[in-house]
C-alpha cells in the first residue's frame, strides 16, 4: 500500500502504446513535428484560447523557466510561505531567474489571501533601488497542503497583482485534481481569472515525464524559447514529451484520472479518521490527506507495509497521497489493518 506520492504512480497504458507508434518513424526535431503540433492544438482547445506551449520534462524546469520570463534578476516573486518553489526546488527559481528573490506571504491552510498579500506588498516601495522590485506572484494549485483556490480567490489575487504591476504565475503540479474537485474548466482556473502563465503538471497524473508551460499573456512569449534552450530543456525529440499530452487529454483521461485519485483520498480520509487519536489536519480537497498520527500507530502501519511520508509542521504530522492507479483493494486492505489498531 503505497501512499507516499503520486510521483510514484504508473503511466497510462495508452501513453506507452502511443509512444511505441510515434517511435516507428523519424520526424523533424525540436518540436517542429506533427505530434507536437497536434498536442499544442489539443491544449489550445482545452484552454479555449490562443496560447503558447513550451514542453519540458520536470515541474522544477516548468516553474523556473516560467518565472524567469516574468521576473528580472533584481525582482521579487511573492509566493506562499510553504510554496513548492520555495522549499522543494533547491533554489532553481532563483538560479533560473538570475537571482530574483522569493518573497513569502503568510497563508491560511497554505493559501494566500488578498488581505495577507496586500500587507506584504505594502512593505515594498519605500527604498527605491535598494530593494528588490516586486515583479510577480506565484500561486500553487492545488497547494502544498492539498487546499484549493476558487476562481473567485484567483480573480481577487490577480486583480490586486495587476494593480501593482505584477505578473501572475500558477504552479499547477496538481492542476487536474483542482479542476476535478472544483468542477471548473481549465480556462476558469487560469486566464479567465487573470493568470498570465501556468506550469501544467501531468506527471503526477498519468504521464511518464511531461510538464507544459502554458503562456496566456502574449506579451511575455518573445524570449521564452531561448530561456528553454539556455537552461538545457529543449528536447530534440520533443514528440516523445508532446505525445504524452495527446493520450493524456484524449477521452478525458486527464480529468477522469484526477477524479479517481481525489475520490480515493476521500475514502482514505474516512478510514484514517476512524483510528483513535488520529486527527485530519487540513481540508481534503484533492488527493492528499494530512493526518496527525501518534508515533506508535505510525510504526504499526509501517510494520504492515503501509507507506506514507512524515511531514513538516508538527511532530506527528503525516501525508498520504492517492493516485489515479490507487486500487480499491489497497484501501480494503488498509481498512482491515486499522480494524486491529
Task: Briefly characterize the structure.
The protein contains 13 helices and eleven strands. With 341 residues, the chain is of the alpha/beta class.
Account of the 3D structure:
By secondary structure, this protein is α/β, with parallel strands linked by helices. It has two domains: 12-252, Aspartate Aminotransferase, domain 2 (3-Layer(aba) Sandwich); 253-338, Aspartate Aminotransferase, domain 1 (Alpha-Beta Complex), CATH 3.90.1150. Helices cover 39% and strands 16% of the residues. It is built from 13 helices and eleven strands. The chain has helices at residues 13-22, 34-47, 59-68, 84-87, 92-97, 114-121, 151-163, 175-182, 224-230, 239-249, 253-273, 295-303, 328-338; strands spanning 52-56, 75-80, 101-105, 133-140, 167-172, 197-201, 211-215, 279-280, 288-292, 309-310, 317-321. A seven-stranded mixed β-sheet has the order 1-7-6-5-4-2-3, sandwiched between helices. A four-stranded antiparallel β-sheet has the order 8-9-11-10, covered by helices on one side. Strand 8 and strand 9 form a beta hairpin. Helix 8 packs across helix 11 (253-273). The longest helix is centred in the C-terminal third of the chain and has 21 residues, at 253-273. It is globular.
Lay out the secondary structure.
Blueprint: H1 13-22, H2 34-47, E1 52-56, H3 59-68, E2 75-80, H4 84-87, H5 92-97, E3 101-105, H6 114-121, E4 133-140, H7 151-163, E5 167-172, H8 175-182, E6 197-201, E7 211-215, H9 224-230, H10 239-249, H11 253-273, E8 279-280, E9 288-292, H12 295-303, E10 309-310, E11 317-321, H13 328-338
Parallel strand pairs: 2-3, 2-4, 4-5, 5-6
Antiparallel strand pairs: 1-7, 6-7, 8-9, 9-11, 10-11
Helix pairs in contact: 1-10, 2-10, 8-11, 11-13
